[in-house]
């Protein structure tokens, strides 16, 4: 293993610890208030008139409350996955979408359907988690064996790997006549969320707690293998733990919701621009902004062409692509000025 970090990124991608260690500040409280307001708007947004129908309150607790809770948990999960990935690889452009992890999760779902015609949600989650973990480990092993001089190459490699896995999934779907499963999965949407179909998302709370406990070790691992080892951190073990947590978060979201692109890219980069790369102090911010981002996109998806609904992945992908291009341009400017 070379002494430089596994991705060979530029100095502006190195972790920068700052003094923003306080969590309960006025801006953070304001951010929580914004999330609460968006949650209230989400509860009362929809075609069905919950106030004018006799079963309005029943439908409110069957569909609206579960959907809003699922939005909050999913936003936190994907944002945290992106944050941990970016920290451990020291690359701003890494997240489940740009590393092929989400495509591996889709392949896992397809394999489960091949062996079990009508799998339960637990089986689908298990397949998605297992294949997400395998795909993430393959990506990390590739980065450790290949010396890369530019941070821009890393997401390109991840997107290429994801495209290959997506092609395999498409071929298997066509061969076994299961294209409908693939199409429904690639269209990430909260329309089908209701009581009995979202409860496993609460596992994300446990993942958040574990990430917070191991935050300091994950931050040290982000400094590279040599530095982390000299500071007494078992680098391989902490990377394995990080990949496991990422796989669980992505697998659960993939099985319950579907594909949600670029959320793990947008939020961590926004937070890092203002607060540096201290995982412990940034985690609450990442969760809150992730919740607000996906909730806002879902509200837009429900209102933009009412009474119909646009998949939230379409809105999220559009916003994420714009942010991704903006970050790329910001990274290229300093080079031209040198």
Automatic annotation (TrEMBL):
Subcellular locations according to the entry: Cell membrane
GO cellular component terms, A-Z: plasma membrane
UniProt keyword list: Cell membrane, Ion transport, Iron, Iron transport, Membrane, Transmembrane, Transmembrane helix, Transport
Regions crossing the membrane: 28-48, 68-85, 97-116, 122-143, 150-168, 174-193, 200-218, 238-271, 283-305, 311-329
GO BP term, example: siderophore-iron import into cell
Keyword Lipid biosynthesis: no
Molecular-function GO terms, alphabetical: transmembrane transporter activity
Chief location: membrane
Protein family membership: Belongs to the binding-protein-dependent transport system permease family. FecCD subfamily.
Protein name: Iron complex transport system permease protein
Naturally occurring in which organism (per UniProt): Paenibacillus aquistagni
Source organism phylogeny: Bacteria, Bacillati, Bacillota, Bacilli, Bacillales
């Amino acid at each position: 293993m070379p002494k430089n970090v596994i991705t060979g990124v530029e100095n502006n991608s190195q972790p920068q610890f700052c003094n923003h260690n306080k969590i309960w500040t006025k801006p953070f409280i304001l951010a929580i208030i914004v999330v609460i307001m968006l949650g209230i708007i989400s509860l009362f947004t929809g075609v069905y008139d919950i106030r004018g129908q006799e079963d309005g309150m029943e439908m409110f607790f069957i569909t609206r409350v579960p959907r809003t809770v699922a939005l909050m948990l999913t936003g936190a999960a994907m944002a945290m996955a992106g944050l941990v990935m970016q920290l451990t690889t020291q690359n701003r452009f890494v997240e489940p979408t740009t590393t092929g992890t989400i495509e591996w999760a889709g392949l896992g779902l397809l394999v489960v359907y091949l062996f079990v015609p009508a799998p339960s949600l637990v089986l689908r989650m298990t397949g998605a988690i297992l294949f997400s973990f395998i795909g993430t480990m393959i990506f990390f092993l590739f980065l450790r064996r290949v010396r890369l001089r530019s941070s821009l190459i890393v997401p390109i490699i991840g997107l290429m790997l994801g495209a290959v896995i997506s092609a395999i999934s498409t071929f298997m779907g066509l061969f076994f006549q299961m294209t409908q499963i693939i199409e429904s999965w690639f269209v990430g949407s909260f329309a089908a969320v209701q009581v009995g179909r979202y409860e496993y998302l609460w596992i994300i709370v446990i993942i958040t707690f574990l990430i917070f406990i191991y935050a300091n070790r994950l931050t040290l691992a982000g400094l590279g293998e040599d530095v982390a080892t000299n500071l007494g951190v078992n680098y391989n073990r902490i990377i394995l733990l990080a990949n496991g947590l990422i796989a669980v978060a992505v697998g659960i979201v993939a099985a319950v919701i579907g594909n949600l692109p670029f959320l793990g890219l947008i939020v961590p980069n926004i937070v890092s621009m203002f607060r540096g790369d201290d995982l412990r102090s940034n985690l609450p911010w990442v969760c809150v902004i992730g919740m607000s981002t996906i909730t806002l996109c879902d509200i837009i998806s429900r209102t933009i062409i009412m009474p119909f609904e646009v998949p939230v992945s379409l809105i999220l992908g559009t916003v994420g692509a714009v942010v991704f291009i903006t970050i790329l341009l910001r990274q290229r400017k300093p080079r031209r000025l040198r």
